[in-house]
Design a protein that fits this description.
54% of the residues lie in helices and 11% in strands. It has 7 helices and 5 strands, in the order βαβααβαβααβα. Strands 2-3-1-4-5 form a 5-stranded parallel sheet, sandwiched between helices. Pathway: Metabolic intermediate biosynthesis; chorismate biosynthesis; chorismate from D-erythrose 4-phosphate and phosphoenolpyruvate: step 5/7. This is Shikimate kinase. GO terms for molecular function: ATP binding; magnesium ion binding; shikimate kinase activity.
Length: 179
């Protein structure tokens, strides 16, 4: 177990990190931060524009800088971007600074949840399922490596998913309150 005052959510695109994360933050009385939204706030443009102008490497640099900053705060729930785990320094910061919960999902559930989403640069193109599968092959071992808790996918809505997460987190998170 990883005692901490912070809760960090990791997982694939469409796993529910933002929608479930908001509810978890409210339940636990934590400040909610979404890493992609923080990047957009700092840059003044959508993530897709950052990708377009700076490429994935530029985006990842910005992501790492803000993950470092956000994870240093106390009493936060941080919903990371799906690829934040690709950087070893990000993984180390997450493990050292918070309790890490991995929201698991399946490619089928991702496709269902993301069917109308046109804003994610790494999903651009025709074969979304192949892209999601390729990302999962690289990222799932990294999620597994740093997760204090793996939360299986729930196919119901946000409310049921949130309640499921709370029950599992409550049974394993040794929460420390922010000073």
């Amino acid at each position: 177990m990883n005692p901490s005052c912070n809760l960090f959510l990791i997982g694939a695109t469409g796993a529910g990190k933002t929608s479930v994360g908001r509810r978890l933050a409210a339940h636990y009385g934590l400040s909610f931060l979404d890493l992609d939204q923080e990047i957009e706030r700092h840059c003044g443009v959508p993530v897709s524009t950052v990708f377009e102008v700076e490429g994935e490497a530029g985006f990842r640099r910005r992501e790492s800088t803000l993950l470092d900053e956000c994870s240093r705060r106390r009493g936060v729930l941080l919903a990371t971007g799906a690829g934040a785990v690709l950087d070893p320094a990000n993984r180390r910061n997450l493990v050292e600074r918070g309790y890490v919960a991995w929201l698991q999902t399946t490619p089928e559930l991702q496709l269902k949840r993301l069917r109308h989403d046109t804003q994610r640069p790494l999903l651009a193109g025709d074969d979304r399922q192949a892209r999601l599968q390729a990302m999962a092959e690289v990222r799932e071992p990294l999620y597994r490596e740093i997760a204090d808790l793996a939360i299986p996918a729930v196919h119901e809505g946000v409310t049921a998913s949130s309640e499921h997460c709370i029950a599992l987190i409550d049974s394993s998170w040794q929460r420390q309150h922010a000073a």
